[in-house]
Amino acid sequence: MITLLDLPAWAQDVLEEHPTKVREQAVPTGPCIYRLHGIVGFYGPTMKALIQEEFGDGIMSAIGFDMVISRVPHPKGDRVKVEVTCKYLAYANW
To answer: Which residues contact 40 (CB under 8 A, 6 or more apart)?
Structure first.
């Protein structure tokens, strides 16, 4: 792979790393990720309630989700639009 892409030898190890959900910090300090974290922290319960009102009891899956990030012009400064499409998984009835 590194030969095909003309990458240095050390890139092989990086390409073989498995992604994880482990975070280095409880609250991120990078400005963009910090604000995304804040949105979910503040609006998360409301978002969950609206999802369950629309779909019933269950969760949305981040496995195989789609994401589109786009610019929305605005007179007071352009906006960032983040759209995600996740699969809804209803809780199983036992």
So the answer is: 47
Its pTM stands at 0.65
φ, ψ at 74 (rounded to 5°)? -150, 140
Phi and psi at 87, nearest 5°, equal -75, 135
Which residues partner with 70 through β-bridges? 81
Q: What is the pLDDT of residues 14-62, one digit of tens each?
A: 888 877 666 676 777 889 989 999 999 999 999 999 999 999 999 999 8
User: What are the extents of the domains in the chain?
Assistant: 57-94
What is d(CA 83, CA 87) in angstroms, rounded to the nearest whole number? 13
With 0-12 CB in 10 A as exposed, 13-18 as middle and 19+ as buried, what is 53? exposed
Instruction: Scan for tokens 């804040």, then name that residue.
Output: 38
